[in-house]
Amino acid sequence: MRAIIPVAGIGTRLRPHTHTAPKALLHVAGKPILGHILDELRAFGVDDVVFIIGFLGEQIVDYVENNYPIRAKFVTQNELKGLGWAIYIAKEYIEEEPVLIILGDTIFETDLNLMINGEYDCIGTKTVKDPRRFGIAETENNFITKLIEKPETPTSNLALMGIYYLKSTKLFKDCLDEMVQKEITTRGEYQLTDTLNLMIKHGCKMTTSNVDGWFDCGKPETLLETNRYLLSQIQSVDKRENNILIPPVFISPSATIKDSVIGPYVSVGDNAKITRSIIKNSIVSSSAKVTDCLLEESLVGNNSIVAGRFRRANIGDSSEIKF
Question: For residues 24 and 312, what is the distance between their CA atoms, to the nearest angstrom?
Fold first, then answer.
């Protein structure tokens, strides 16, 4: 089985961090978002992956090639015309075998066997209180009857979680072509939901599968929430002399910590340096330097320097702030 992961989005809600790095490479709980996805796929035995890249896509290529011994292919998306368009430009890699599509900003915990071993095409969903910022599925007798992209007035609270398992690959490719040829769009973009609706219209039976855990990485506050949850699932065994660590924390072995209090819910990246600081509920990315700070609910980008009595910071890569 082949997986397709679209990672071409520019992540406007996570600026300034996404000015210098793809959203999928932002760190959470010790590794990039994309690393969490690929580790889930490899644990399931999937090592044939197509990445749809765009802005700063060479960083995605470098990360995958340097960290994952998988059969990777890269397709460049030059125009951001919707998720359906992203899959359309990669359709040459959709063959007869089933395909698994996972959005590149979706960290999930679910049993993929429940989707893959079913009789029908399947979409991962979760019941949510406010489905307006998601695509939603309308169902009848356990089959999807219609998919709606981010409805203003939702008719269902069954939200799409960004995981799609498609067995009807020939029909899927035909419907991708039909969507583009007939210029079927939603809010001016080609959406994957438009293609899937065409499949249903042409008789494809499609079911849903509950996604147990889905973690939003779309905004600074939700990235920190995801960091907290994922750290709470690991056993912190790190000890640093002359420092106080309050678990759960993740500290890269190459990070340097001196005379500091770290935690709870702190992730510290490779080669970061923290000196005389108190940090909790924060992400300090690779090669960042934090000195004489009290930080809470903060994001510190790669290669950044923060020094002084800051309380809360959201600092992009290669920035320097001193007080």
Answer: 23
